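Listing S7. Sequence submitted for prediction.
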Amino acid sequence: MSAALALAGSIAIFLVLGPEFIGLMGLWLIGVGAGCVPRGSYERPLLAFGVFIAGMIAVRTYQNVFDADATLRFLKNYWVAASFCWLLVSMRHAASKPLERVSGFNRRMADFSFSLYLIHFPTALFLLSAAHATGWFPKIAEGYGPTDGAGVSLYLGVMAVVYLLAWAFSRQTEARTWLARRWLRRRLQPTAGRRA
């Protein structure tokens, strides 16, 4: 019964969100796979890093070619996702003094990574729109890239504000998930004395 409900729900989601959703879901699942793949001989940090960097250079160099065709754009996105997944998987058990030195920093950044993922785009869009609307940086509306001091400063400032707001947001959300877990555990875990 539960499998039939899950299947019906999945079909309904695909019908509502459209066929492109399936491809985007695949990209997300590659990211999920990075946390689920067991340890194995495929963990080659230097090779994975080289493949990822070579792929990124190719994607950037031939961006117009990839973006001109929907199939090539689809394959490009999967190449980048899969190669980065391989790099992440390969780095999990790599012994590296520089990585060990920054592990505390990485852990603190990971503590609010979901909040950053959730609010970075709307926050950055709002800040850049405000820079345009106030006349402080009107060229931003033309797709202006950070190629001079003012542009670089603007983007660095926006990044700093986004990180700060994501951290503050996480203190009210991610940092309090233990409350929701405790509430759910009390209601969902069967007690030893309870019998159906």
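Caption to Listing S7: primary sequence and predicted structure tokens for the chain studied. Residues 102-196 form one domain. The mean pLDDT is 83.
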